[in-house]
Design goal:
Elements (H helix, E strand, L loop, with lengths): L1 E6 L3 E7 L4 E8 L6 H14 L9 E6 L2 H15 L4 E2 L20 H11 L6 E6 L2 E7 L5 E8 L1 H11 L21 H28 L4 E5 L15 E2 L3 H17 L1
Parallel strand pairs: 1-4, 4-5, 6-9, 9-10
Antiparallel strand pairs: 1-2, 2-3, 6-7, 7-8
Helix pairs in contact: 1-2, 3-6
Length: 260
């Protein structure tokens, strides 16, 4: 069985694939100081609830945008799974061309998403991932990574608004009632600004990318927050919550074939 670990700046996903399907997924808050032993205790308890154990896991792949965490995640795999993990950006062959000025600067999460989207959707693509940052990445028809845009994430923007303005409260992200744009109190005004502001950000940037590229691009969105925008944006063609782990599974399979 494969353990896939996808670590973002805010959350870390642990998912188990049995060779045919994903049989378990868990999320935890990303903590860069968490040790391999702490991960093992937490993970073993969750596995036990599914009738599994650490000994059931025979392979591991890691994608992390938190460099200081990779040491402990690697030790988790070595010490408790007894396997050398595949790490995106280190020892994992991706099988795609990275066509940007400095390929080493492409984030592991963006490359994994590009692969996950390419194997599921035909033609050139725009891949949106809404997390701590909101990224818009262009994927060529052949799967090549061709660059993109990085903007602040919606939660980051809300946090900055609350912390910088003494009278503005911390609010939850939600679609304004009856799709109203103009708020009638502070909370509804903030919710409208955040929600419709990000809809305009998404639609506006996609329109500009398409105009610059001069070609039809299918737009695929993933990430924990992006589902809130379903039905509100006119530019996103597909909402795909499994994009990242699909890409990690494909990278694992490509590297396994290369090793044979």
């Amino acid at each position: 069985m494969l353990l896939a670990i996808e670590q973002g700046n805010t959350n870390t996903l642990f998912a188990v694939h049995d060779g045919e399907s994903w049989i378990a997924q868990w999320r935890s808050a990303t903590e860069s100081t968490r040790t391999a032993d702490e991960y093992a205790v937490w993970l073993s308890q969750l596995l036990e609830m599914r009738g599994l154990g650490l000994g059931s896991l025979t392979a591991c792949i890691i994608s992390s945008v938190v460099p200081q965490s990779i040491f402990n995640l690697r030790n988790l795999s070595r010490r408790y799974l007894h396997v050398e993990p595949l790490i995106i950006g280190e020892n994992a062959e991706l099988g795609v061309e990275v066509r940007i000025d400095k390929p080493s600067e492409a984030g592991a999460d963006r490359l994994v998403n590009a692969i996950g989207a390419h194997i599921a959707y035909p033609g050139p693509l725009i891949v949106i991932d809404s997390g701590t940052a909101t990224t818009f990445d262009v994927v060529g028809a052949d799967g090549g990574f061709e660059g993109g845009i990085i903007a602040p994430g919606i939660n980051l923007s809300m946090q900055a608004l609350h912390e910088a303005a003494a009278k503005l409260p911390r609010i939850a992200i939600q679609r304004p009632e009856r799709n109203r744009v103009v708020g009638t109190d502070t909370v509804s005004a903030m919710q409208s600004g955040v929600f419709w502001g990000y809809i305009s950000l998404i639609d506006g940037l996609i329109e500009r990318i398409k105009a610059e590229r001069g070609e039809h691009l299918t737009v695929v969105a993933t990430g924990g927050v992006v589902s809130l925008f379903e039905g509100a944006t006119r530019q996103i063609d597909h909402f795909d919550p499994d994009l990242t782990i699909r890409g990690m599974l494909e990278i694992h399979r490509r590297n396994r074939r290369l090793a044979q």
